[in-house]
Amino acid sequence: MIIENLDPATLVPAEYNPRRIDEHQLAALKRSLSRWGFVQPVIINERTGNIVGGHQRVTAAMELAMETVPVVRVTLDEAAEKALNIALNKVSGEWEDDKLAELLDELGADGWDLLDLGFDDLKIAEDFEPDDIHMSDVLEYKIMISTTGEVEQAELFARLESEGLECQLLIV
Fold it and tell me: 46 with 71, same domain?
């Protein structure tokens, strides 16, 4: 495998690429690239010039003003390029919940921020059953209650705080 270093601004995103990234995931990806650098090259198709795999990493690299990114070239017809794009984005394994929970606990105890690993509280909650024993160490349980006005909000706030609950007032 030959790895080249190319300017990410010269790489051409495939218009058909079905994967998107939200702001939270992009921020996590940028933290990852800043911390570890590029450990997985971008894949481009020699025939079309399109990025086949690595669209989000290229976006993150450009936002980080990286001058170059590692690139591997493949030579595929257009249909094979699209198939590989989907396979690279979809083919993956499943988490072994117990092992992942143990690793997250260990890394959290060592001071790692789970956001740097691409997790947030919602994602962790989705990935684990409620009875996973270690998740209480990394989850916060929150509730938002809508009230009809400022007076009702203040009364409810005072009542909940008097019961020992930590509360925050929000006006949205």
Answer: yes
Query: Is pLDDT above 90 for 111?
Result: no
Task: Give me the CATH number covering residue 72.
Answer: 3.90.1530.10
Q: What's the predicted TM-score (pTM) here? A: 0.64
Residues composing the chain: 172
Which sign, positive or negative, has the C-alpha torsion 63, 68, 70, 75?
positive
Q: How many CB atoms are closer than 10 A to CB 31?
A: 17
Q: DSSP per residue over 52-90, as a string?
A: EE-HHHHHHHHHTT-S-EEEEEE---HHHHHHHHHHHHH
Q: Which of 137, 140, 129 is nearest to 97 (CA)?
A: 129
- Same domain (yes/no): 61, 38: yes
Domain count, the chain: 3
Q: Are 91 and 97 contacting, i.e. CB atoms less than 8 angstroms apart?
A: no
Give me the mean pLDDT over the 89-115 stretch: 75
- Measure the CA–CA gap between 120 and 132, rounded to whole angstroms: 16
> CA-CA distances (angstroms) from residue 128 to 10, 89, 115, 121, 156?
40, 22, 17, 11, 32
Model confidence at 98, in pLDDT bands (50, 70, 90)?
confident
